[in-house]
Structures are given as structure tokens and as C-alpha cells.
Amino acid sequence: MEEGLLKYIRNGDGKVSRIFRIGTRKSQLARIQTDSVADKLKELYPDIILEIVGMSTIGDKNLDTALSKIGEKSLFTKELENALEKNIVDLVVHSLKDLPTTLPPGFTIAAVLKRENPHDAVVLHPKNVGKSLETLSENSVIGTSSLRRAAQLKKRFPHLEFKDIRGNLNTRLKKLDEKDDFAAIILAAAGLRRMGWENRISQILEPNDCMYAVGQGALAVEVRARDTDILEMLSVLNDGDTVLRCIAERAFLRHLEGGCSVPVAVHTEMKNSQCQEEVDVPCQRVGVTTVKVDGESQDKAERLGIDLAKLLLSKGAKEILTAARQQNDAR
Ligand code: DPM
After folding, report:
1. Of 58, 150, 176, 220, whose Cβ has the fewest other Cβ atoms within 10 Å?
2. Which homologous superfamily does the CATH classification assign to the domain defined by 239-331?
3. 299 catalytic per annotation
4. What is the residue with the minimal CA distance to atom 15 of ligand 1?
């Protein structure tokens, strides 16, 4: 243990317990997401001792630069992984869509929790309430820094204009409401719901309008790969269907060599959930059961993603992605 930061606490009865430290970004959304995972862990392991450690990341410090322009693959994850590596924290909660499809050696995803609504949502300027993307007037400006959202929506709604908007969710809603720069902004429905702002959603974008980002709406817990005890402890958090869909989606993006700076979108559905088996997880709390996704189903999901990527590459996806990257670099 290089830095010897593992923490223990001595209980009244003389027993010693380990403290598990959870790293999180400091934004309100990140805190809410981390708290929700901590609450689930406390429900499953009532005696667990957790400590939440807030940290700033490159993505948080560059609030004015479009995500796709910062050019750093692991915008929101690098500092948190450094903290994992140095044993400053033991687990890190992320939005899965912010986690690169290939993690640095030594790190792994211990759990992917049940996905929320993965779709994108339209939030209108108060003066436009009652309208939709379709009925907003010609040349209305829509705020989003996501190339994926802008690329799809430009094609579907050619009468609209798209401009970058940065900052955390609180900042963006303020920019929308208090200025006259944007007619509407596009955000993930999941983030809005977690913040308690569901009432601001005026339209959920269906796949025909705009497909979502790989992993959108799902939370993931990242840990040190060597911590097999923590991996086992966290496996109860996994949601089988979400795990399989996200394996397929991430394999697809990995094979396309896409990232934050290319407009790649997906839509996945589980046709049946037969591939899961109920198993007992041998963990501290007796009687905890979970669905474990068997290795064969995981392999199938991975292959599905890769096959789809290959199909698209054979139809010219590589050229489209290269052009999109060059266009982005020139912005
Ligand atoms: C990534 C993108 C965005 C985030 C790009 C994309 C949106 C950037 C923007 C990879 N990460 O989606 O095409 O709008 O300028 C992010 C959000 C959430 C996780 C916020 C959002 C919450 C939803 C979730 C930012 N990361 O997309 O509205 O947990 O999936």
C-alpha cells in the first residue's frame, strides 16, 4: 500500500472496521449521483462505513470550453483515477457516458446500476413554453455543446441553429432562463430528473429525432482492478439488462474509435432478459441476491457492438468520423 491511506475505525466494542471512501466530482449532479450509490450501499450493507470525498476535474475547471474542444479523453475521470491509484479513495461514481471505453490499466468498472431514461430532453426558454423543436420559429438558437446532438438535430430540424453552451446544469439553466441567447437547450433527461428538474422537460427526444450517447443515463462505479473484495461487494449493484446494453454500446464505440469529440449515437433495447441467472452473492449480508450476467451473454453483447461497428465501417463510417474530427479541430 504505497501511500498507506487505507482508513480504519475502531468501534465501541473494540472491533475494527474499514472505511470505504467514495470519490466524486463536486458538481451538484455528481454529488446527487454519488449519494444515491452510497444510499444503495448502506441499504445493502447496513454496517458499511462510507466517506464521500469531493474533487475537481479538468472538465470542471474548463467550464467555458466546449467539451469536444478540450481534447482530453478522460476529462472528468483522470483526477479521480489518480485518487484511486494513490488510495485516497476506494471507489468512484461516474456517469457511464463520461467514462472512456478503454480504462487505463489497473482500473475496472465494478458495477453499472439500473439505467434511467437514456434519452435527451428539450428544455425551453420560459417564453417558448408550449412549443416544440418542430414549432420553434425559423433560426431559433438551440444550446448544446454535444456534437452528437447538434449533428442529428440539424438534420432533423433544418430551420434551427445550434450554438455551444457550457457549464454545469445549474449554470446552463440560468443562462437559458436569464438571458435571451437560447430558445431552448438540450440535456440528458436522466440528469434533469436526478436534479429534481423533471418539470422543465417539455419534450423527450425519441430515436427518430435524436439517439442518445453510449452509456447515457447509467451510473458506473470504478475501482482498482486488484481490489477483488470491493469488486465482489459492489457486484450486487449491477443491473443485468443495463450491463448488457452498455457492454454492447461501449464495444460499438470502442471499435469505431469514437470518443467525446465524435458524433456517435446509439439506441439499444433488450429483447428478452432470459440470459440472466439468479445467484447468491457471498457477501457480508446474508440473503442478498442479485442477478449476475453470465459470461456468455456478456460476450454476445460485446460481439453485437463490434459487429455493428464493423457494418458501419464497411459503409464509410471511418471517413465520416475523420471528417467530423477535422471539422471539430477547426472550430
Ligand atoms: C458527454 C457529453 C455530454 C456530457 C456528450 C454527448 C453533454 C455535453 C453537452 C460525453 N458527457 O452527450 O453527446 O451537453 O455540452 C454529461 C451529462 C450527464 C453525464 C449532462 C447531459 C448526465 C446524464 C447521464 C455531460 N455527462 O448530457 O445533459 O448520467 O448520462
Report:
1. 58
2. Porphobilinogen deaminase, C-terminal domain (3.30.160.40)
3. no
4. 145
